[in-house]
Amino acid sequence: MAPSSKAEKKAAVDAAAWMFNVVTSVGIIIVNKALMATYGFSFATTLTGMHFATTTLMTIVLRWLGYIQPSHLPLPELLKFVLFANFSIVGMNVSLMWNSVGFYQIAKLSMIPVSCLLEVVFDKIRYSRDTKLGIVVVLLGVAVCTVTDVSVNAKGFIAAFIAVWCTSLQQYYVHYLQRNYSLSSFNLLGHTAPVQAGSLLMLGPFVDYWLTNKRIDAFDFNIPSMVFIILSCTIAVGTNLSQFICIGRFTAVSFQVLGHMKTVLVLTLGFLFFGREGLNLHVVLGMIIAIFGMILYGNASSKPGGKERRSNSISRSSQQKQGLPESSEVDDKV
């Protein structure tokens, strides 16, 4: 295949993977908001456990159909990933409960510099000046869009700190495990989803009771609420899979930067569906700045030297040993 054709195919698959993530992520936000606002289902941790249980069923079916091949992931690596992922889920829920919306948004924005730090320390990544500028512009735009009231307290700060670091580590680990153990997105989900489902379904009701003072066994599981729960779980399969695909292809930092396009999209959809509420001049200005920053980041990081390893010898030899291409992308078939 000619280099140009190969590059065009990769760009098309990248775009499809990203759109898959955007559609499923925005869809699950809308469904979960309806489930919680309309039916009072406030058990977010348990719901996430249900999401991973549904994802586990998907991986079992795919394995039975032959789409998931046998693979190996060392138990210590699996447990570290699940620990980071579960603390990320609980930490974000607690952070949202204990902090103002403004500080919660600032905490979410700080995941980008934390993810950059992880790549610099562990992968020896070096960012160009234009790439750094693109990241800063994105952060500025999203901050203008979303950050309003900002108040913080000690326990809220601790919850946000744990949530930010665990989320960043979990996303970094997705790329790390796929690259180091030659795992596709399906393979990695097949290893991690069952453990996350079991742990969250066991601990979720207790965590949710601590957060909301409500017991899940007292919830009225009527037919309309069950329809929304099933719909949420179904969309979550796509969200979980698309996250692994995107991070495997783009790395955690690019996933975080591009992820803020979803924030802009949610604000836009809110305006289209609910009128002019929440949309004013500074929100529009922030959206324009954020989109400009994403374009700047995309152009800068795609140029030679925009984002490169300081020492390529270790990663290249490791990839050659595993039979992987030197680009570290292991999901071209997805």
From TrEMBL:
InterPro entries attached to this UniProt entry: Sugar_P_trans_dom (IPR004853), TPT_transporter (IPR050186)
Subcellular location per the Swiss-Prot or TrEMBL entry: Membrane
Keyword Membrane: yes
Major site of localization recorded for this protein: membrane
Protein's membrane topology: Multi-pass membrane protein
Signal peptide residues on this chain, from the entry's feature table: none
Residues passing through the membrane, by range: 12-31, 43-66, 78-96, 133-150, 156-174, 186-206, 226-245, 257-275, 281-300
PANTHER family listed in its UniProt record: SOLUTE CARRIER FAMILY 35
Protein name, per record: Sugar phosphate transporter domain-containing protein
